[in-house]
Amino acid sequence: MSPGRLHSRGRYDVLREIQSLDPDTDTDRIVWLTSRHEFPWDYTQGTGIAFLRDYGVPSIARLLDRTRQFEDHGVKRYDDTLLFAEEASVEGIDSPRGHAGVRRLNQIHGHYDIPNDEFQYVLATTIVGPVRWIEQYGWRRLDPVETRALARFTTRFGTLMGIRDLPTTYDGYLELLTSYEAKHFAFDPANRRVTEATLRVARRTAPAPLRPLVRRATIALMDEPLRAALGVPRQPAWFVRAVRAGLRLRARLLRLAPPRREAYHHRPSTYPQGYTLGDLGPASMIDSLNAARPSSPSSPSRPSGRASA
Fold first, then answer.
1. Percent of the chain at pLDDT above 90?
2. Where are the chain's structural domains?
3. Which of 273, 294, 270, 272 is nearest to 282 (CA)?
4. What's the pLDDT tens digit per position in 214-237?
5. What is the C-alpha separation between 222 and 117, in angstroms, rounded?
6. Taking the model in full, what pTM does it have?
7. In angstroms, rounded to a whole number, what is the distance separating the alpha carbons of residues 281 and 252?
8. CB burial class (10 A; 0-12, 13-18, 19+) of residue 175?
9. Which pLDDT band, with edges at 50, 70 and 90, does 50 fall under?
10. DSSP letters along 176-238, please?
């Protein structure tokens, strides 16, 4: 599925290709172009903020806190998360590679008793986070074709994970997220511990000149309900304005840049010599995950927790 190198030179040529495609039948191609060519950095940042939203729900944060994955193996956890997303999209969600990646993810989740509504919410953050970021800081607005394709991809991904009763539109995911947060966002000490561990990971993986500002800048990009639920300190108004203005300036400058011709691929520091699917997952589970008998590539296994059908 991966399109490889693009030959386009015009800034809006990729968008014109996207607009010529059908979001129901060309879903993978649209998602690839949007996330890997048009907005790769923005998509990654929006996904990062989305994961922080998960920590605003105490039951989710407590589980993550107990596993200590972010505290003890934070960079690997960060790399694995981005690589799972790549495995699902590089050849298409319904390719053998895409199914194998989802199956591996389901094997990991099967070690925990996670209710369906938490799976629904976490999945919703993975689409709402990037879309919101691009709406605020992207060099152009997303086209309706893109949001429709993103929603279709997200629902298919969730279905393969065995998550029930999912929305099929972006507006449906946005409503799921906002209503769930209104009901479940609350401060808990576990929220703050997992957040601070994640911010340390962000600092370690950021370019060296930016590391002193990573924690404060990330907090400055949070909305107030999220900041309060995570228990992190409010940043000065001038600093919040400066961070957001800087991102908008970047967007204006990017409008003048040529399109990315090579698809973005995450470069994991955890695996400098490359990785296989068998490397992904919590270190304590690797042997048992790799010893498990795989399902057929065309039929991903589902998590064995409460989210299973």
1. 77
2. 13-274
3. 270
4. 999 999 999 999 999 999 999 999
5. 23
6. 0.91
7. 38
8. middle
9. confident
10. HHHHHHHHH----HHHHHHHHHHHHHHHHHS-GGGGGGHHHHHHHTS-HHHHHHHTPPPPPHH
